[in-house]
Amino acid sequence: MTTDHPLALGARRDAALDRACEIIRKAWYEFDHPRPTESPDSESLAQLFKQGLPTSGIDAVTAMDIVAELMDTSVAQSRPRYLAFIGASGLEVGVLADMLVATYDVNMAVDGRAASRMEEQAVRWLGEYLGYPADGGSFTSGGQVSNLTALAAARERKFPGSRRTGVAGLRPTVYVSAEAHVSVRRAVELLGIGSDAIRTIALDSKRRMNADALDEHVRNDLAAGFTPMAVVATGGTTLTGAVDPLNSIADIAAEHGLWMHVDGAYGLAAAGLARTQEMFAGLDRADSVSIDAHKWLFVPKACSALLVRDHVPLVRTFSHNEAYMPHEGGALNPVDSTLEYSRPMRSLKLWLAFLVYGADRLHEAVERHLDIAQILYEAAAADPEFTVLPHAPQLSITPLQHVLPDCPDVDAHNMALTFAMQKDGRLFLSPAQIDSHTFLRPCFVNYRSDKSDALAVLDLARELGRSICPTH
Ligand SMILES: Cc1ncc(COP(=O)(O)O)c(C=O)c1O
After folding, report:
1. DSSP string covering 46-69, please?
2. pTM (2 decimals)?
């Protein structure tokens, strides 16, 4: 490329790269500690966001400075007291991997030589990490796409040829717990099965799928002429971290020929630990499992993976012959067994995390979160100003309510409190509705969060909760 190319950075290239590295370095050191307040919104950025498309550009280093301000005034999940939803952490080696991935920009739709061998190994390593006998799988853009991919394979296995013919008249049914993630419903809708086909199975006392109720539903559906197609167990629900009884579900799936998928987008990261062996028993019997490494394996978004016990259904679902996508020597392309076409090398960040830390240190990081969630649960349970669920966290979510006698509408108070906390900025929480009651829902998946960050939830809830209660 000539230096007078319209897109050449020319003499500013090194300076722009140095500035980007400086921004990252500063952020990493800042993320080591919670910050006392959030930066206020930037007036100059607000003005910039109102402008139309520039016809001529600006200096790349100046642009980097603008981006630094943009990042500083955004909600960054990498900060240690970001405890909302199921966050992410921006693991540093993952960030480095992403920089390199973007730089080389290998397309994983087709064979990328070493990149493809690395991705195959990442699938194998992930299987080993989880204790799941993966015959294959692929990296996807998120739990939503992993669930969609699994159910597409389930549909094709149950109804061979349905990728062409559709499922009209076949009356498939899909089983999920009442607290399964909405991505399953959306996947069933997109696959043309229709969400009326979803059977929502009641929960047991620990908010897990009730396996007896599942069995009964499947039998009733068979008797009524439906074709039970798949059961999606959740390995860590989004709301409370409940892990469905996988072994019992696997028994029912095997008896009735259902595809069993485990949506472990959040919780599966804890599956390989000695202390969770009983909780995840039966995982190895699932036809497919999914996990978001951008959740509890700490790497930056987006890095989900779908692993399968048998690779063939994926190939039957997605393989194709197109004039622009030849099969060299008859070999399949990676895109023949997954949904997305142009696909970045998402796996590198996880592969690098495995390489740099090894499974033991990653397990240790996950285990710390199990401890933190428990510590917070016990501290809240012992404090008269808080209530907790009747059962301790199974994974790393600790829903709790701030309760003041002067504030009798506990739900309204906790909703107002979460928003007061978000506005305050010292800690970022999201609210959750559990049995129609509003809870604060701290979730620990950020490797930068420690016990003091967890206990800060109680201190801040007490401080802000008292200040917003009008009669306190
Ligand atoms: C259990 C579960 N499944 C699926 C998803 C969707 O994942 P993603 O946001 O990566 O698409 C989530 C997101 O939180 C989840 O918790």
Report:
1. HHHHHS---SS---HHHHHHHHHH
2. 0.97
Pocket test for ligand 1, best of 144, 176, 240 (most atoms within 8 A of CB): 144
d(CA 267, CA 377): 18
Residue 142 alpha carbon to ligand 1 centre in Å: 7
Residue 2 confidence (pLDDT):
77
Residue 136 and residue 122: Cα distance in Å, rounded? 10
pLDDT tens digits along 311-327: 999 999 999 999 999 89
Atom 7 in ligand 1: residue holding the nearest Cα: 143
CA 77 to chain centre: 13
Is the CB of 264 within 6 Å of ligand 1?
no
- Ligand 1: does its nearest atom lie under 6 Å from the Cβ of 148? no
Asked whether 446 lines ligand 1 (CB < 6 A), one says: no
Mean pLDDT of the chain: 97
Asked whether 241 lines ligand 1 (CB < 6 A), one says no
Give SS3 for 218. Answer: helix
CB 346 near ligand 1, within 6 Å:
no
Domains of the chain in start order, with CATH, are: 96-354 (3.40.640.10)
Q: Residue 125 to residues 128, 129, 305: CA-CA distances in angstroms?
A: 5, 6, 12
170-227 pLDDT, tens per residue? 999 999 999 999 999 999 999 999 999 999 999 999 999 999 999 999 999 999 999 9
- 234 Cβ closer than 6 Å to some ligand 1 atom: yes
